[in-house]
C-alpha cells in the first residue's frame, strides 16, 4: 500500500497543532517565581520557541496551499514496516520500564530487537543483558541517579 504525503502541508498542520497545545499548556507547566527579581521569566525561552514554531508552521501551510510549493513523498508500507515496528518496540520499552523496571525491560526488549534484526550469536544476547545490569548499577552507584525498578522490586 502506497500513500502520497504532502510534506509541507502535513508538517505545518502537525507542528502547528503541537505548538498550539504546548502554548496552551505552558502557563500551567512552568511557574513564574513568586517574587520579581528582575530576571526574565522562565517561560520566555520556551514561549519564544513555541511562537516561532507556530509561525513557521503557518508559513509551511501557506506555502503549500497558496503557492503550491510542495514536496510529495510516497510512503510504501512494505519498505517502512521494519522501521515502524522498531519504533513501536521502543515505545513499548518505555512503558515496560515503568512497570517492570529498567533491567528486565532492557533485557527483554533489546533481546527481542536483536532477534528481529536476525542476530543469532548467544554472546551478543548475554552481553546485552550484562550491559543492562551494568548501566543500571553505574547510574545507581556512580551517578547516584535511580532508574525505575518497577513494581516487582
Structure report:
This protein is mainly alpha-helical and 153 residues long. 69% of the residues lie in helices and 7% in strands. The protein has 5 helices and 2 strands. It has helices at 7-29, 44-65, 77-100, 102-116, 122-142; strands at residues 2-6, 72-76. Strands 1-2 form a two-stranded antiparallel sheet. It is flat and about 55 Å long.
Question: Care to give the gist of this entry?
Answer:
The protein is mainly alpha-helical and 153 residues long. It has helices spanning 7-29, 44-65, 77-100, 102-116, 122-142; strands at 2-6, 72-76.
Helix-strand topology string: EHHEHHH
The tally of strands reads 2
What structural class results from the helix and strand content?
mainly alpha
> Strand order across the biggest sheet?
1-2
As a whole number of angstroms, the C-alpha radius of gyration is: 22 Å
Report low-confidence residues grouped into runs of 5 or more.
none
Mean pLDDT: 91
Q: So what's the overall shape?
A: flat
Strand residue percentage = 5-15%
The largest sheet, given as strand count, sense and whether it forms a barrel, is: 2 strands, antiparallel
Amino acid at each position: 500500500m502506497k500513500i502520497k504525503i504532502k510534506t509541507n502541508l502535513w508538517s505545518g498542520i502537525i507542528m502547528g497543532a503541537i505548538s498550539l497545545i504546548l502554548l496552551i499548556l505552558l502557563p500551567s507547566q512552568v511557574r513564574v517565581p513568586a517574587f520579581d527579581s528582575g530576571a526574565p521569566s522562565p517561560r520566555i525561552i520556551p514561549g519564544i520557541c513555541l511562537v516561532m514554531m507556530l509561525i513557521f508552521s503557518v508559513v509551511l501551510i501557506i506555502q503549500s496551499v497558496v503557492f503550491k510549493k510542495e514536496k510529495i513523498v510516497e510512503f510504501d508500507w512494505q519498505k517502512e514496516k521494519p522501521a515502524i515496528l522498531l519504533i513501536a518496540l521502543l515505545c513499548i520499552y518505555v512503558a515496560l520500564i515503568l512497570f517492570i523496571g529498567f533491567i528486565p525491560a532492557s533485557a527483554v526488549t533489546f533481546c527481542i530487537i536483536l532477534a528481529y534484526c536476525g542476530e543469532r550469536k548467544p554472546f551478543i544476547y548475554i552481553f546485552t543483558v550484562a550491559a543492562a545490569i551494568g548501566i543500571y548499577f553505574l547510574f545507581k552507584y556512580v551517578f547516584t541517579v535511580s532508574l525505575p525498578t518497577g513494581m516487582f522490586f
